[in-house]
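User:
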Amino acid sequence: MARSTVRISGLKELDRALGELPKAAAKATLRKVLTEAAEPMARAARRNAPKQDYHLYESIDVSPRLNGRQRALHRKENSPTFVETFVGTNNPAGVQQEFGNERHAAQPFLRPAWDAEKKPTVERIANSLWTEIERMAKRVANKAARGR
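Assistant: Predicted structure:
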């Protein structure tokens, strides 16, 4: 399976601002932004998914978690990161639909969603991350002022 990488430059200020937040608050902020930004990609994948297979349509989701097999493969192939979010299905039928097999032609639904949504998703992340960092910084400051 081919890997696709998206590189983002010019976000050093965002990284510094996240670094000023407590670790848990920074992770929560990133998870929220990534989940909200990736949802349109998941919707596009659901639109592209074959409709006769409703179990597949319903299994497409945005999540920070993978199933056990996916987690093992991901851990083997990648170095640890601060926060990750995934769009896809944990349904084994999804692989057969996406890539096909000897009895079934490929009916891709995730790759077209990725192709259509990768740039808008990065833009959504960049646009909403500042707002969420500022919101979380205010929450942290208010919590500190109350003495918690």
